[in-house]
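From the thread on structure requests for the teaching lab: each student submitted one protein with a one-line request. Submission from student K.M.:

"Model Probable membrane transporter protein from Qipengyuania spongiae, tokens only."
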Amino acid sequence: MDVYLPIANLAVNGLWIVALGALTGVLSGLFGVGGGFLTTPLLIIFYGIPPTVAAASASTQVTGASVSGVLAHAKRGGVDYRLGAVTVAGGLLGSGIGALLFRFLRSVGQIDVVINSLYVVLLGSIGALMMREAVQSIRGTATAQVRRRKHHPIVAALPWRWRFYRSGLYISPLAPLILGVLVGILTMLMGVGGGFILVPAMLYILGMSANVVVGTSLFNILFVTIVTTMMHSLTTKAVDIVLVGLLLIGSVTGAQLGTQWAAKVKPEWLRLALAAIVLVIAIRIFIGFSIRPDEIYTVFPL
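Reply posted by the TA:
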């Protein structure tokens, strides 16, 4: 097995990667995001790990962080298992589609470009939206909108409505199913849990109750990343087990801390900080497109 951490500084790099895992674990507990949206680009930027290996390994680490976070939120009744099961079904289908796309893009030599491009577009747009909402909340201009949040008109027009009692919804299961498919594809391609998309979508598209969004998002992420990890291990073979182990050491502990802090810190300030981190990463990856890389070619075993 090839190890992508520089051997000369393995101990130092290992400690920093454990710290990175702890940071993503805290984000998982606080926001219901798997943390892969942060782990993958940071592994690429600071450690020079190939995007394919970073994405595959990060999805494995997200599974560990999600287990810890789901257990903590389940104790507080913060998980809508029925809606979560629908999004998981969509996520499993999306993971299969994403695996086919991953293998195709890798075969034509474009997977690294696609992964980086997706990060720039998604992180940039979502970070900007989160930043705007956080600023509005801090100024007190978005309070009324948050209290009166409803699901999107497109969701209301879909047929076959079900009741999701814990989320306070009466909507078609097609909406969370389609959302799960999209998140599954992104999980396979980008090594993310999809929470940074799933949480805003649950709030502003599905109109879910805020007290179950984080736990339900983590419930979905848990099962989708398990399947994604298995697909990567069996098909792409891009999972670095040493890297995953170091990330898991920090992320499991960090998720518990994040869950405890979530009830103590003002959410608008947390969203502002997270939005700033997301935008900085998106800008850094975008700048990377315009400068010459340290290594023109990336070689790893097939």
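TA comment: Strands lie at 162-164, 169-171. The chain has twelve helices and two strands.
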